[in-house]
Amino acid sequence: MLAVAKTPHIEFSFKGPKDVLIDILERLKGSYPLQVVESENDLNNWTSTELHQQIKSRMHGGSTLRIDLFKAGASQKSLAEATGILQPHISQMISGKRPISHENAQKFARFFKRPVKRYRMLP
Question: For labelling, which of 42, 67, 84, 92 has a CA lying 20 to 30 Å from the CA of 27?
Answer without folding.
Answer: 42
